[in-house]
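Usage

Read records sequentially. Each one opens with the input sequence:
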Amino acid sequence: MEYSISISEILVAVLVIISSGLGFIIKEQKEKLKSIESQLSERKYKLYHGVYSLFFDIIKSEKGIKNQSIKVIGTKIIDIKKDLLIYAPDLIVKKFIEWNRFISNNEGDMRHAKLFLELYILIRKDMGHPKTLINESDILKLIMTADTEVDQMKQLIDL
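and closes with the structure output:
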């Protein structure tokens, strides 16, 4: 028995090995990218939860339900700013800056809530609801307990 191996057979074998190796590398890169996206999404969720909690804390504080000092809320804002710069897209960072500048320059003016509600909508869009139909009024209805409170808040923030 005599076997002869041609160059074409060797080339086919080499190409099969190379294509298998490249397929494996591509699969590993896709899995790594998916893992990074998952970690980013998880961190964004925690960040956005902090942003939402901040507004609810402010509302509770104004209603007298929860007595938090300005220092505690200020510390939360600083922590949120740090993470916003790392994880959030530009639109959300810019809206947060706009809200923060407004509360810094207009202390006690409830119109800051309108900016925060707009921020909520942007966060919903970033977290996987790009075609959300939820608007600022809907969020107020979710936060406030009675229709009279919703109407009063709408008047205060010019919504």
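Summary fields computed downstream for this record:
- The chain has a mean pLDDT of 87.
- The chain has six helices and no strands.
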